[in-house]
Amino acid sequence: MNVQFRDRPEPASSVSVKTAIADCDIHPARATATELYPYLAKRWHEHLETYGKHAYQGMMEGPPFPKAQPNASRRDAYPPEGGPQGSSLSFMQKQHLDPNNVALGVLNPLNTGQGIRNHDLAAAICSAINDWQIDKWTAKDSRLKASVVVSNEDGVAAAAEIRKRAGDANFVQVLLLSRNVEPLGQRRYWPIYQAAEEAGLPVGIHAFGYGGNPITASGWPSYYIEEMVGHSQCQQTALASLVLEGVFERYPKLKMVMIEAGFGWAPSLAWRLDKNFERLHSEVPYLKRKPSEYISDHIWWTTQPMEDPDSRDHLLELIEWIGWDKLLFATDYPHWDYDDPSRVMPAGVSDANREAFYLGNAKKLYGLA
Amino acid sequence: MARHVVAPVDELPPGTRKFLVIDERPIAIFNIKGEFFGLLNRCPHQGAALCEGPLIGLAQSSDPGEIEYTRLGEIIRCPWHGWEFDIRTGQSYCDPKRFRARAYPVTVEPGAAVVKGPYVAETLAVSVESDYVVVDL
Lengths: 369, 137
Known about the structure:
By secondary structure, chain A is an alpha/beta fold. In chain A, about 35% of the residues lie in helices and about 15% in strands. Chain A has an eight-stranded parallel β-sheet with strand order 2-3-4-5-6-7-8-9. Chain A is globular, with a radius of gyration of 20 Å. Chain B is mainly beta. Helices cover about 5% and strands about 45% of the residues of chain B. Chain B contains one helix and eleven strands, in the order E-E-E-E-E-E-E-E-E-H-E-E. The relative contact order of chain B is 0.26. At the A-B interface, strand 1 of A face strand 2 of B. Strand 1 of chain A pairs antiparallel with strand 2 of chain B, so a sheet runs across the interface.
């Protein structure tokens, strides 16, 4: 027999044996609107149903631009039991973790309590999300690790949440988003960095956020494609601010991960910072080293959406500047701009660099080596 | 090359698609307004199950400000990265020089021909009274 009929099309990835990888950007979702309620005090159920969540920007519950695919996610990633993409552990295992041999998957929940103006509610939802990550995901699949989601605009509450989770092996990083009320180096956010450094947790900064500012530095653009490209601009603002405010002088053991905002711009930003630093050093005299040195010592980069220049040599040159030891492979599962692990690596890369890129760097950074 | 009988015509009414594996290849057969089309269910870009995407039209612009939307329902849009392919030819509209989806000819044959012809139809009980959808691989 050579013709087989199936109820569902086959998963896109084959189940052949593959080299183990780390996926440093997986987005877990809630199957229902009330899935967090068991982790929230009754007071907040009533508050949410009566008053809702007031954000620093409109459209908190919906994106500021349409997302090209439903829930910004792959159309083939709906779980068979219902719910949005990314809301079922068993389907995530079947479609992604098992066939792609994911040995370490870092969860980055979006649409949490971040960016809510009621800071008590923000802190309650963030803490609930952290409990939910353990119960629904990491306790049931030891390959998955959680991120400590914190109420980003309330540094004191955020630091308390980090200290609560410090030493808990379910968590491997603290999660922030790139777009906040102020640039991320400013001192209202310093308690977060202090607590993360004390806990030995890297701080991941994922593209997106709810700070109330447009995606560009000069107003709201017309198209979703401009938002997609704009993530790298916002990330550059965050990174420049972190360096120039002296965050890495103040917290010298702090490590940070730039998530889903590209890395091709990193050399250009570093060169420009260095050039201006030579001339304007007296304005920021607490910086003891060139900006590029803070970047190369403190910053790691997730790969997705992988830079894809026409010339393979250009990509390899870029990576040489950043360092093969600083890239962390990520798919962004289940989001629509997912990178398939078998399709992103150019030919001619050494086995050692491939291993570091796909797994070794992540295990080392997250203390799992 | 072999001709495979994949379904009786009345099992694939207009607006439906059927997913199969033929000789270890994932294939999708579409009935679009009575016309049948076959595509390899694997996107040439990153390998997604291409044929799970929506069938859309073709938005083109000859000049800024002028947009034409044609070929309604004849363009398949990948469920991952949204790459668009012509269901008739497999042509990519994102990067036609480097990528093409694999299209297979699909025809409708009378049962009488299918019974005696050089067709592969192991999973179907073929009867001479009906018509069958046949794909060339």
